[in-house]
Amino acid sequence: MTIDLRPATPADVALLRHWDEQPHVIASDPNDDWNWEIELERTPEWREQLIAQIDYRPIGFIQIIDPAREDSHYWGNVTENLRAIDIWIGEESDLGKGYGTKMMQLALARCFADPLVMAVLIDPLASNTRAHRFYERLGFQFVEWRQFGEDECFVYRLNRVDWHGESAIAQEHKNFGTI
């Protein structure tokens, strides 16, 4: 099995819209409209939108942004040299198989490949205790409760010094493909 990440393109609109309609995706992100038709045409320097694949079969989506440069200022006034990640598995049948962990490890490796990046932020819903446990297992630390639009979220942060992926990256490449 090979897990890899490729850029999301306008050809992925139907797939992403389908995933957006899945109950487990709605439950984790109930109030966002991603405007796929518009956003997949844009390629701002501060964002990567990626499709995770297993042997070329799409299984999930990852967005990595520079929250200090992102144009909607979703994260508010944040310091430089951070990244923020959105991630989900598209089909419920792909949950619980370790794919999300592998996807997140690949995303973190991308973030920390830039030596200036000090930390990564995430914002799961406050009610999503399964996501909290997932991120905590990866080393993220709870920072604060915060309201983002209509959503009550927990903000978590993984500092570079707490990231254990650097030593595990070689093993990830060997077992699950390249970044």
From TrEMBL:
Its EC number is 2.3.1.-. It is an enzyme of class 2 (transferase). Residues 3-161 form the N-acetyltransferase domain. This is GNAT family N-acetyltransferase. It comes from Floridaenema evergladense BLCC-F167. PROSITE patterns: GNAT. It holds the Pfam family Acetyltransf_8. InterPro entries: Acyl_CoA_acyltransferase (IPR016181), GNAT_dom (IPR000182). GO terms for molecular function: acyltransferase activity. PANTHER family: LYSINE N-ACYLTRANSFERASE C17G9.06C-RELATED (PTHR31438). Keywords: Acyltransferase, Antibiotic resistance, Transferase. The keyword Membrane does not apply. The keyword Transferase applies.
